[in-house]
Write a structure and sequence with these properties.
- By secondary structure, this protein is α+β, with helices and mostly antiparallel strands.
- It folds into 2 domains: 71 residues, Arc Repressor Mutant, subunit A; 184 residues, Beta-Lactamase, CATH 3.30.450.
- Helices cover 46% and strands 17% of the residues.
- It has 10 helices and 8 strands.
- The protein has a 6-stranded antiparallel beta sheet with strand order 5-4-3-8-7-6. It has a two-stranded antiparallel sheet with strand order 1-2.
- Helix 2 crosses helix 4 and helix 6 runs antiparallel to helix 10.
- The longest helix has 25 residues.
- The protein starts with a helix and ends with a helix.
- The N terminus is likely disordered.
Length: 261
């Protein structure tokens, strides 16, 4: 018996756990993943990996392209929307934004961390043409985004280094953080000032400010919220006002997020 499954409880189905590992591997990969890649990364025989991929493809959780690579399937979006709709988190996010006011023109997002990515679980696009349309389920690198840097600022430096495992940081623009050392310096500033910035690192001409949402009971950080604006419209006064509004928004979302967990 394989060491990975030997000590599992009797009620656990090992093949389901392997399927989840496979989905996680594809979700965290920024490049198309082939059957051979999955066999190597998961340390599974080709026949077993092919069976998992075929089953997941038939269920709509995976999609196989003509070149033989695998991608996440559309059925995952349906499951995500169903999950989020049961939490009323999107409604709570919209209600909180409407209560605060003052952010009608800017895009606002609520994000959680999944490895080295942020995943947007609620969003409202503003009226200004920032060049990026947010959507629920959208992923972006933590190292480029205000929400991402707000989230990983709660980690220690060694945890941040392990997050990237010596790999180069993603570059979405010429302004994206160049390396882990530079990112750690930014995170020191985030911890000191209480908010993170994305200064044209995700999209040229766009400036974002983000703050983490802390667990009031002292647990791990819950999520992060951020606002995106046209860089040319940013000012010190505007930035300070936005940070204060985001801190209020974060406080309003603490309880709904704890229920999500």
């Amino acid at each position: 018996m394989h060491a990975e499954t030997r000590d599992l409880p009797k009620a656990v189905v090992p093949s389901v756990l392997k399927a989840v590992r496979l989905l996680d591997e594809i979700a965290t990969s920024r490049e198309p993943v082939s059957l051979g890649d999955l066999c190597t990364r998961l340390a599974l025989p080709k026949s077993s990996t092919l069976s998992l991929c075929t089953s997941l493809t038939l269920s709509g959780l995976l999609r196989r392209f003509d070149d033989g690579t695998y991608h996440l399937g559309k059925h995952l979006v349906d499951l995500a929307h169903s999950y989020l709709s049961r939490t009323d988190l999107v409604r709570e996010f919209d209600l909180a934004l409407n209560t605060l006011k003052g952010l009608e023109e800017e895009g606002a997002v609520l994000a959680i961390r999944d490895g080295s990515d942020v995943v947007y679980i609620a969003c409202r696009n503003g009226s200004l043409p920032i060049g990026l349309t947010y959507r629920i389920g959208m992923r972006l690198p933590v190292s480029c985004t205000a929400t991402g840097k707000a989230l990983i600022s709660t980690l220690g430096d060694q945890e941040v280094k392990r997050l990237f495992r010596g790999k180069p940081l993603p570059h979405l623009t010429a302004n994206s953080c160049a390396n882990v050392g530079a990112l750690l310096k930014q995170l020191d500033e985030v911890r000191a000032q209480g908010f993170a910035m994305d200064d044209e690192e995700t999209r040229e001409g766009m400036f974002c400010v983000g703050v983490p949402i802390h667990d009031p009971d002292g647990g791990p950080v819950l999520a992060a919220v951020a606002v995106s604006m046209i860089k040319g419209l940013n000012s010190k006064q505007k930035q300070e006002q936005t940070v204060e509004t985001l801190k209020q928004l974060a406080q309003m979302l603490q309880n709904p997020l704890k229920m999500l967990r």
